[in-house]
Amino acid sequence: MEKVFIFGHKSPDTDSITSSLVMENLERKMGNPDAKAYRLGKLNKETEFVLNYFKIQAPELLENIEEKEKVILVDHNSFAQSVNGIEKADILKVIDHHCISNFETATPLYYMAEPVGCTATILYEIYMMNKFEIEPNIAALMTSAIISDTLLFKSPTCTKKDIEAATELAKIANIDIENYGMEMLKAGTDLSDFSAEELINLDSKELEANGLKFQVAQVNTACIEDVLKDKEAIEKAMTDFINANNLGLFMFAITDIINSNSKAIVLGERASIVEKAFNGKLEDNMIFLPGVVSRKKQIVPVIKENA
Amino acid sequence: MEKVFIFGHKSPDTDSITSSLVMENLERKMGNPDAKAYRLGKLNKETEFVLNYFKIQAPELLENIEEKEKVILVDHNSFAQSVNGIEKADILKVIDHHCISNFETATPLYYMAEPVGCTATILYEIYMMNKFEIEPNIAALMTSAIISDTLLFKSPTCTKKDIEAATELAKIANIDIENYGMEMLKAGTDLSDFSAEELINLDSKELEANGLKFQVAQVNTACIEDVLKDKEAIEKAMTDFINANNLGLFMFAITDIINSNSKAIVLGERASIVEKAFNGKLEDNMIFLPGVVSRKKQIVPVIKENA
Fold first, then answer.
1. DSSP 8-state assignment for residue B99
2. B116 contacts in A (CB within 8 Å)?
3. What are phi and psi of B182, to 5 degrees?
4. Which residues of B touch A105 (CB under 8 A)?
5. The domain at A4-186 falls in which architecture?
């Protein structure tokens, strides 16, 4: 059997890391022992908490991929967010819950996407479809991913299917969703170790619309003002990033997971797009976004519409 | 409930028409009574035979789609092969078995694709997954689509899943696959009624690779020489089409479904790509392709590689 590389997006979050590990488990059950999970970057604090909690080893780092290597993408499809060299790889499968963009294959493939809150919810369905047993450790990874992506079911991206899957999986993993979930989300909000440059790269997506190259990064916190103590350094890191990558716009959203609001720092020549998109004014390069917690559902689409 | 339009590709073949009707049935079982099957063009003889045989009404013709209308695509994803106005529609679902190209959505969607020979095989899996009953008429439509797309399991695109699905479905529909299948495929080879212009449009796909705009049309026949009686008129129609659409290459493949070979008429400034792709010489604008029956697997990828 040939080797198959499984990975999520760059700046990996909990769903990208755990879904790679879960997909490795699924592929083995399907008779592909040479499929292996990888990660495209450093683990964030939340994911570290999850892997430590359940004593699961992190996937190896993957820097780039050679031509014709076989890959399986989870939690993303955009080449801009994927591994270096993806254009020349042989994509066997995609399991994802995002819109489809900049995706192109020469041959037919297995592609399964659903408009649900988390990749793990789709993976759960694949286990059900195939009547595969789900081991407690694997169930724990999937539960964690759903809690993470839906912010404990509070995000507008959360669907009935996500809640149902997490409820079933938590039983298998013997997890108290509320208690474990809050502990896990809070672990993710510990940003004290990170430099400004690391902060803006923790969960950052490169996007494009109508010729506009833009970046939307997001961090979760229990206290927005805590993060803003470093505002000056963050703005400097964002400006460097804009210049290095020739971006029209960089939006850094700081999301308060307790009160379900965000405050964003917005820089770049086309920063006014964000004012138009959210019908507000930037003050001190910042805008308050009440009720906004989901980049995918509440930020990216409105920026694209106004680009 | 809002209306949902379900349709396959332009120049519809049996899979595109029957999968639209089957998907309508599936959506109703899923509780969406306002989803309705449409067709994007004239039925071919094979599809007419199928619908007459089982006394099933053809879907209505759809010319274009308005902004924000809700659609479900079956048997295609490329906008070039879809309805006029697709760029502005709201794509809810895609069920397909082709490579992904020129496909882009603003929001997440349900996308299910597998590298199998026929869309109907994936639809069959969706019935199984949901434990929905399959009525004999619906099973007959799916069996016909699989026979059509796999040329009675002889095409290299045919997979084990296609054979398994067709075998189960033929039982439900009470069809003798071999006898019905040959009769159906032969009905499709009756090209006597068509003008040269109609012939080159019967099952024709608009494609693009490395800046090359090209078209690959295909007809099935029991006798290649019969079709070539009209060679002069076909070449004229192809040339007109090339000029009207600014194509670099037009390949018209005439496939002998009895002996599993093809002969192609190739025109256009970039016709030599076909010589390179198949390692042969065009004589009289024609090339013989032994063993070639599948546009998707044996023609399009090698043209793209050499474009």
1. -
2. 108
3. -65, -40
4. 99-101
5. Alpha-Beta Complex (3.90)
Sheet holding A286-289, edge to edge: A204-209, A212-221, A249-256, A261-267, A286-289
Q: Rounded CA gap, A175 and A168, in Å?
A: 10
Which residues are registered as beta bridge partners of A289? A262
Instruction: With beta carbons less than 8 A apart as the criterion, state whether A9 and A40 touch.
Output: yes
Bridge partners of residue A90, in order along the sequence: A70
**CB atoms near residue B226 (< 10 Å):** 13
Structure tokens belonging to residue B143:
């069996």
- A128: nearest CA partner in chain B: B129
Chain A residue whose CA is closest to B118: A108
Q: Answer for the pair B136, B55: CB distance below 8 angstroms, yes or no.
A: no
Torsion sign, CA atoms A59, A65, A66, A70: positive
The matching CATH number, chosen from 3.40.190.10, 3.10.310.20, 3.20.20.30, 3.40.50.2000, for A196-306 is 3.10.310.20
Nearest to A107 among B116, B129, B301 (CB): B301
Domain locations along chain A: 4-186, 196-306
ipTM entry: 0.79
- Are the beta carbons of A108 and B98 separated by less than 8 Å? yes
Q: Is the pTM of this model over 0.90?
A: no
CB within 8 Å: A107 and B115:
yes
Burial category of B126 from C-beta neighbours within 10 Å (exposed 0-12, middle 13-18, buried 19 and up): middle
For chain A, count helices (H), then strands (E).
11, 11
Per-residue pLDDT of chain A (307 residues; tens, 9 = 90+): 579 999 999 999 999 999 999 999 999 999 999 999 999 999 999 999 999 999 999 999 999 999 999 999 999 999 989 999 999 999 999 999 999 987 888 888 999 999 999 999 999 999 998 999 999 999 999 999 999 999 999 998 999 999 999 999 999 999 999 999 999 998 988 888 889 999 999 889 999 998 999 999 999 998 899 899 999 999 999 999 999 999 999 999 999 988 889 999 999 999 999 999 999 999 999 999 999 999 988 999 999 999 8
Q: Is B233 left (phi over 0), alpha (psi -120 to 50) or beta?
A: alpha
- Name the minimum distance, in Å, from the CA of B40 to any CA of chain A: 23
Give A98's contacts in chain B (Cβ within 8 Å): 108
User: SS3 for B2?
Assistant: coil
Chosen from A86, A107, A118, A129 to mutate, greatest number of chain B CBs within 10 A:
A107
**Nearest chain B CA: its distance from A92 CA (Å):** 9
Q: Which residues of B touch A102 (CB under 8 A)?
A: 104
Q: What is the dihedral of CA A22, A28, A33, A34, to 10 degrees?
A: -40
Per DSSP bridges, beta strands B4-7 and B35-39 are: parallel
